[in-house]
């Protein structure tokens, strides 16, 4: 039996993360915490997609860092927007 390759493992992880994204919101006691958890899952999914499906594992560390930072900054803005909306 052969081991699944990286893309297969990433695909399985993305399915698991998508299911967690669907199942977790009803379990969260506070909307702001729920948003933070969902956005954290989105960061993980975005990084897996960038590294494995966009094949950024093979590029210099600077590019991987820039793409990862872009994903995190984008999600921080989304979380900030949800926090401001919760305060209004």
Please tell me about this protein's structure.
By secondary structure, the protein is mainly α. The protein has one domain. Helices cover 77% and strands 0% of the residues. The chain has helices at 6-23, 31-53, 61-87. The radius of gyration is 15 Å and the shape is flat. The model has no long low-confidence stretch (mean pLDDT 90).
Key structural traits:
single chain
Q: Report the uncertain regions.
A: none
Shape: flat
Kindly state the percentage of residues in helix.
over 70%
**CA radius of gyration:** 15 Å
Tell me the series of helices and strands, N- to C-terminal: HHH
Short recap of the structure:
Keywords: Cell membrane, Membrane, Transmembrane, Transmembrane helix. The chain is mainly α and 88 residues long.
Helices and strands in order:
Layout: H1 6-23, H2 31-53, H3 61-87
Helix pairs in contact: 1-2, 2-3
Organism: Bradyrhizobium stylosanthis
Membrane topology: Multi-pass membrane protein
Protein name: Cytochrome c oxidase subunit IV
């Amino acid at each position: 039996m052969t081991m699944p390759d990286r893309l297969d493992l990433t695909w399985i992880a993305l399915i698991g993360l998508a299911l967690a994204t669907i199942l977790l919101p009803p379990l969260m006691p506070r909307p702001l915490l729920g948003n933070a958890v969902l956005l954290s899952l989105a960061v993980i999914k975005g990084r897996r997609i960038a590294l494995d499906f966009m094949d950024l594992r093979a590029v210099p560390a600077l590019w991987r860092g820039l793409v990862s930072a872009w994903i995190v900054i984008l999600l921080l803005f989304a979380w900030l927007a949800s926090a401001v909306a919760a305060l209004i």
